[in-house]
Amino acid sequence: MLTIRRTTEEDWASLKAVRLAALRDAPDAFGLSYATAAAWTEADWRERAACRRAEYALAFDGTQVVGMAGGLAGAGGEYELIGMWVDPACRGTSAAARLVDAIKRYASAAGHRRVVLAVAPANARAAAFYRRQGFSWLPERYPLDSNPDIELQKMSCAL
């Protein structure tokens, strides 16, 4: 049975495992490199899992973590969806949509009126998924931090 829940500090090992799996699976989808994340200490992971800067939702299939999404307050009062990833074996299930819904709830509860994200338009599957979740393209484009050859475009969803 799939469950989605916000992380607590005690979830640091699960957050680390899923984040590193995401970075191994899709290194060109994130601004963070695997080498950087792998070098973080247990204290660093505990800080992230405690949701002090960003909030994280994890998807669990039983006790196995199979996905993650993060969110944080960004510039101009926007709430940014970050670090979205679902294990390839769970793609096509409700996991991704439920993770996005969790981030939308976190944003709404914090008083935000919209959620934004950045995705490579060339990643057609991800772009189509976000459009089904209510996101639409914005004219803002910029290079991916970890690979400037990849162009990201911002998407937005009103809450």
Describe this structure in words.
The protein is α+β, with helices and mostly antiparallel strands. The protein is built from 5 helices and 7 strands; from the N terminus they run βαααβββαβαββ. The protein has a 7-stranded mixed beta sheet with strand order 1-2-3-4-5-7-6, with helices on both faces.
The top level CATH class name: Alpha Beta
Instruction: Classify the secondary structure makeup into a structural class.
Output: alpha+beta
Domain tally: 1
User: How far from one another are the termini?
Assistant: 28 Å
Record the strand order, biggest sheet.
1-2-3-4-5-7-6
Residue share in helices?
A: 25-40%
CATH superfamily: Gcn5-related N-acetyltransferase (GNAT)
Question: What form results from the Cα inertia axes?
Answer: globular
| Number of alpha- plus pi-helical segments | 5
Tell me the strand percentage band. Answer: 35-45%
Q: Output the CATH topology.
A: Aminopeptidase
Mean pLDDT across the residues is 95
Tally the beta strands. 7
